[in-house]
Structures are given as structure tokens and as C-alpha cells.
Amino acid sequence: MNTKTKNIILWSCFSLFFISAVILGTIFDLEISKSLADLQTGQYFTKNIFAIIGESIGENILYVLLVSALCILFFYLLRNPLNKKWLNTCLLITMCLISVLICYYCLNNSLEHISTHTNNSLDNFLSSTLGIISLLFSSSAITGFALFLFSKIKNENILLLWKWALLVIILSALSNGIVQGAKLIFDRTRFRAMVFSGDTDFQYYDYWFKFNNNKFNSVSPYADDFFKSFPSGHTCAAASSFFLILLPLFVPQTNNKKWKSIFLTTAIVYTILVALSRIIAGAHFFMDVFVGSFTTIILTIIAYYLVKYFQKKQQNKDNTCMKRNKRYGC
Q1: What range defines the domain where residue 57 resides?
Q2: Which of 116, 287, 289, 280 is nearest to 195 (CA)?
Q3: Which of 110, 113, 230, 246 is deepest in the core (most CB within 10 A)?
Q4: 210 Cβ contact list (under 8 Å, min separation 6)
Q5: C-alpha distance from residue 115 to each of 109, 119, 126 (Å)
Q6: Is 31 part of any domain?
Q7: Burial of 274 (0-12, 13-18, 19+ CB in 10 A)
Q8: Rounded Cα–Cα distance for residues 78 and 80 (Å)
Q9: Does residue 145 lie within any of the structural domains?
Q10: Burial level of 171, CB count in 10 A (0-12/13-18/19+)?
């Protein structure tokens, strides 16, 4: 079986899976949440440990990848500086500061999620001067440790990785930008918002593809979070683990079945676990997590084939150059 036939079969299976999931997910969206969500009437936050873990650290893979990407770009510019030293220095400082801010947001976000399931003492600490200073110090320490680890990578490997790092940042911005923008447009009511409000008949439920005109007023402190169901930001972030499948395109050492299998399996398992935790938490419906994750996955697939296309184009150009008479150059 040639490569073209394999690709046709692969894409046919992928398309069939995607269409089937959308159809079945749309039909059984509410029923899936009714079966899996671990909530009692009047309860907004679940006590399910698996769901709490997913809510607290499910997005963190995105922040790990972003900090890693910034560290790679930092050492690329440090070892291969731009002609303008002032610009190079500014970029190095900026990347360090952004890395610290990402770590701060990651730590603060995780602890805030934990505080909603415990008590207000942690929340009060996070908003205090001491809490902010502690998080900034911790974030700086994590960034410093990350830079120390990446400093051990040889320059020849940094030269291979910097394009992957840049792609990670671009794809992260695109996928999360799309998902966060869609949340503002669709305003879908969360399953747990209906449970919390005592809507046991789920009269405020609506399909994912509709703009929500069925919103309700509430004086609850959680009201601002009620209508952010579609799509899921957590699963969009979790699916950034699929960026790992792009590594073999840039790093020859990972371009084999063993590493490709590890990257793909890790991404699939991690994304599914986070998606499941969000449904159990009542924060999202099936279609929310499906669209959230596939936004990132589809963008990653597009990036994969674009990179392969340009690499092939460059390879053809190099082969043409080699065939020319060397004295004419390329």
C-alpha cells in the first residue's frame, strides 16, 4: 500500500470519526452530562477529586510548553545574537519577563481553583501583598530553573528546536484566541450553572451551535462564569500536548516510530482525561470539550502539513542547487 492510499484511508477515518462525534455529541450532549456530572442540586463546584485535579492543573501543559518554547528561543538568541545588540538584549529580557508572568498565572490559576474547593483563607492569601510577592518569587525561581535546564542543551539542538518553539507560541495564541473569542459569542450556559440554580428540568439548556438567547439573571458570585461553557478552554489548553507530534519534523533523533508513538499516546490520553474531568465537574458538555480540543488539534495538523510542505520545497531547492555547476553558485 503506497503513501497516497494510506493518507486517503487515514483522512477518511478521521473525517468519519469527526462527523460521527459531532452528530452523536449534539444529540446526546445533555444526557452525557446527566450521566457523568458529579453534582447535587444547588452545588456549583464538584467534590469529585478527579474533576478537581483536572480543573486545577488541566491547563498547565500549555504553560509548560510555552515556558519551554521561550527558554529555547532565549538560548537561540543568546548563542546566535541579532546584529543589533540592543534589540537582542531587549528580546532576551522580554522573554524572561513573559516566562515569569506565565509561571505566575499558572500558579495563581491552579491555587485559585483549589481554593474554591477548600476555604477562603487561600484565596485571601493569593490576593494579599505577601501572596503576590510569594508567587512572583516562586515564578522567578521556576523560570530560573527552566533556563538552567535548557542551558544544558547543545547549540546544534537549539538550532533544530527554535522553529518548533516559535510554532508552539503561534499555535497557542491562535487556538486559545479562537476558543476565548467563541466563548464570548456563544454564551452557552454551563451544566453546573443550571444545577446550581435549581433548573432540574434543564430548561436553560441549548445546543452548542446556537447563540444563547436563553440566559437568566442571578445574584450569585459565580454568575459571571455561568455562560462560558462553549467551547472548553481547559481542553483547548490540554490539547496543546499535541504540539509534541511536531517535534519529529525538527529533531531527527525523535523522527522514529518509538518517539512518535510516545508523543501521540501522551497527547491523546492527557487530552481525554482533562476533557472527562471537565464533564464530571459539570463545567462543560461533551461538545464543549470536543470542539475545544479539536480547535487545537486541527490547527496542529494544518501546521504539520505546512511544515512538511515547506521542508520538501526547501529540500527540492537544495537538490537543484547541488546539481548545478558549483562555480555558478545557487
Answers
A1: 44-211+220-317
A2: 280
A3: 230
A4: 186
A5: 10, 6, 9
A6: no
A7: buried
A8: 6
A9: yes
A10: buried
Q: How many CB atoms lie within 10 A of CB 226?
A: 23
- Residue 230 belongs to what H/E stretch? none
Scan for cell 499535541, then name that residue: 242
Please provide the size of the chain in residues: 330
Which residue shows C-alpha cell 512538511? 308
Per-residue pLDDT of the chain (330 residues; tens, 9 = 90+): 677 787 788 889 989 999 999 999 999 999 999 999 999 999 999 999 999 999 999 999 999 999 999 999 999 999 999 999 999 999 999 999 999 999 999 999 999 888 887 666 777 788 889 999 999 999 999 999 999 999 999 999 999 999 999 999 999 999 999 999 999 999 999 999 999 999 989 999 999 999 877 788 888 888 889 999 999 999 999 999 999 999 999 999 999 999 999 999 999 999 999 999 999 999 999 999 999 999 999 999 999 999 999 988 888 887 777 776 555 555
